[in-house]
Amino acid sequence: MPALHRQAVLDNLIDIVARSLQIPADAISPESRFFLDLEAESIDILDIRFAVEKTYGFKFRNEEIRTLLDEAARNRGLTEKDIPELFTVESMLDFILFKLSASNDQSP
Question: What are the CA-CA distances from residue 15 to residues 12, 21, 29, 38, 75 (Å)?
Answer without folding.
Answer: 5, 10, 11, 14, 30
